[in-house]
C-alpha cells in the first residue's frame, strides 16, 4: 500500500459517515481503486476504521470551527493534508495552506480547481505547496510557508501523519510550527500512544502494511507517548481525547465495546505560549 492510497482510504471512510464526519465533500474523491481496497482492510484489520476516521474528522471540524468563529477568520495550515476538505465547510474569511508530497498536491490542486469551476465546491482562498517533511530543513519549510500565510491567527493541523514519520522529523516539524505561530495559536495533531502497540488490532495493521507493501514505498510506524505532548517547547497542552471517547459523544449507537478492540488514535490540541 502506498502512502497516497492511505489518503484516499481516509477520505472514503469520511464519506461513509457524513453525519458524523461533517465532511459533505469527501465523496468527491471516491474512486473504484479505493472502493476495491477498503473491504480487505476492514476485514483484515478492523471493521471500525470508517467510523473512527469520521470521529477524528469531527473532532477537528468542531475545534477549528470554534477557533475561526471566535477569531472571525484566520489561516488553516494543514501539514500532510491528503484529501481533507475542511476549508469548504468554513466561512470565506478562513484561508488555507495545504502541504503534502508533490503527487498528492498536484493531483489535489487540479481536481479542486476543476470542481470549483464546475460549481461543485464553493470558492475558497487555498494555497498548495509540495514539501517532503523528511527531506527539508526547518529553515526551508519556514521560508516557503511564511509568505503564504496572510491572515492570522493560525491553526496548524497535522492529522494522520505522525505514524508515517520518525521522531527526528516530528521534532523538526514542531520547530517549524513554533517559528510560524504566535501566542494563542493552536496545533491539532494525532498519534497512536505506545500502549496501542500491545493490541492485536495494531499488530494486524502493521501486518497489513508489511504484506501489502508492493512498491517499497517505505515509511515508519511511529507511536508517541503522552509525555511528549506535555513537554513541547513553547506549547501548552489544551485538550486531549481519543476516538473511543469521541464515539460515546458522536456515535453512541456504534458497537465498540472496549478501546483495546479498535485502532484508537489520540487527538491533542496544543496552544503556543
Ligand atoms: C493517512 S494520510 C492523512 C491525510 C489527511 N491529513 C487526512 O487526515 O485526511 C497521510 C498523509 O500524510 C502525507 N505524508 C506522509 N509522509 C509525508 C512526508 N514525509 N512529507 C509530506 N507529507 C507526508 C501523505 O502523503 C498523506 O497525504
From TrEMBL:
Protein name: Class I SAM-dependent methyltransferase
Methyltransferase in keyword set: yes
Keyword Isomerase part of the UniProt annotation: no
Native source species: Aquimarina mytili
Keywords of the record: Methyltransferase, Transferase
InterPro entries: Ppm1/Ppm2/Tcmp (IPR007213), SAM-dependent_MTases_sf (IPR029063)
Pfam families registered for this protein in UniProt: LCM
PANTHER family: S-ADENOSYL-L-METHIONINE-DEPENDENT METHYLTRANSFERASE YKTD-RELATED, S-ADENOSYL-L-METHIONINE-DEPENDENT METHYLTRANSFERASES SUPERFAMILY PROTEIN
Molecular function via GO: methyltransferase activity
Listed GO biological process terms: methylation
